[in-house]
Amino acid sequence: MNTIHEAGCLVAGQWLTEGPHAERIGPYLREPVSRARTAQPEDVAAALDHARRSARRVARLAPATRADILERAAAAVTAQGDRLARLLALELGKPLKDGRGEVLRVADTLSVAAAEARMIGGEVLPVAGWGRGVGNTAITQRAPAGPVLAITPFNAPANLLAHKLAASFAAGNPTIVKPPPQAPAVSTALVELLLEAGMPVEAVQVLHGGGDVGARLCAAPEIAVVSFTGGVAAGHAVAHAAGPKRVMLELGGNAATIVCEDAGIAEAALACARTGYSNSGQSCISVQRVYVHRSRFEEFAEELTAQVKGLAVGDPLDPGTDVGSMVDDDAAERVVRWTAEAAAQGARVTAGGTRDGSVMAPTVVVAPPAEAKVVREEVFGALVAVLPYDGFDEVIEECNRSSYGLQAGLFTHDVRRIVTAWRELEVGGLIVNGSSNFRLDHVPFGGVKDSGIGRESPRWMIEDFTVTKTLMLKGLTIWGDE
């Protein structure tokens, strides 16, 4: 019998465990793996009041103090890596190798946020360059914006929580965390490690629950900034509920990767196989559409199919597993249904197309029509579609037909194509000689169009979690007054 991991709500420094709970059924084990204490309206009210009253206390912590805490937390996460990876496997069906990779990124993210905390400052403005400024001095500083609401997704619940919470704390804000219902235990475990590392109870609270909890928090006047990662429809609802607050949205994608005729086909196929099915394709930058020059199209499709058929599928707790389960049966069934629809429209299914419960067999769909759901919609599952193209301008245009614009990949050695794609593709990031599914956590990450607003990674998130304050010293100058 598997241990059921308890996840309490953290409100005003107290872990609340008694009261209504929601169970999480592990998608692979198909039995309860965690139990979260669901937040009630009075918990939400108490958390908001505590965040409001705590803002000044957290803001007064020196950047060095915040940085030291984050560095200790990074070391603790590294030491607890296996435990956190196991929780990810139990709650989400994420293979241990993917979970360990996510935990390594958590530690990196905390360390990067610590380094960025030490760099927060301001500047002396050159006011004396204009006549009315002569004889005066103006100085700016980055000041904490106020209480932050962090709403995190199920697909990378630990690392995306680390991004939001670490950047908010580095900036000097208290944070209310609303974790995904699918991953309450791993989210709670990460917050516990941060508290053990010295994060004050004024700086973080945790409220488990569904959309009703998130909507109440978004609309609350006590919240200064909302940072949300999730689906497009939910993101629109968050923005509507938040109103005139500062809002950062990291939403969906159906990422494209282009394979040119000069690319190494074996290397490109291997990269797409490894990154198209990690976490069962449940990533906003997972390889979904691969456009291959027609002269290499069949060669690539055969090589990708062979690589995909070699992936180990099954128990996420087995260290050798490459592809575990999707988040639930409905998600897997949707991918099966979309695969069948593409096949009925003339596509070839060269691998997969079936499921066993929530485990989706890694699927390759070759030459689907341009309007098929596996091309136009966000699959968010263990499926890669392969499509031919003839001209480079044509494939750029086809990639841009998507309503999303998060990240793209490009395999070529032609610098002119690289520059053209960087300029013309409507995306937030381009990965050259790699697939769309690559990210460094200290590099800005975010999209355009329906993929969201703002950029993640500690440095850029700290900018969103702070405000610029100006100090004007009239009659006092460091520039000269004649």
How would you describe this structure in keywords?
482 residues, alpha/beta, seven-stranded mixed β-sheet, 22% strand
Can you walk through the features of this model?
- The protein is of the alpha/beta class.
- The chain has 15 helices and 25 strands.
- The protein has helices at 41-59, 63-79, 81-92, 96-117, 157-171, 184-196, 211-219, 232-242, 265-276, 297-309, 329-344, 373-376, 392-400, 415-424, 458-464; strands at 5-7, 9-11, 14-16, 21-25, 32-37, 122-125, 137-144, 148-151, 175-178, 204-206, 225-229, 246-250, 256-259, 289-293, 348-351, 355-356, 359-360, 363-366, 383-389, 404-405, 407-411, 429-432, 448-449, 452-453, 466-473.
- The strands form seven sheets. Strands 15-18-19-14-13-21-22 form a seven-stranded mixed β-sheet, sandwiched between helices.
- A hairpin with a 2-residue loop joins strand 16 (355-356) and strand 17 (359-360).
- 54% of the residues are buried.
- The mean pLDDT is 97.
What is shown here, in short?
The protein is 39% helix and 22% strand. With 482 residues, the protein is α/β, with parallel strands linked by helices.
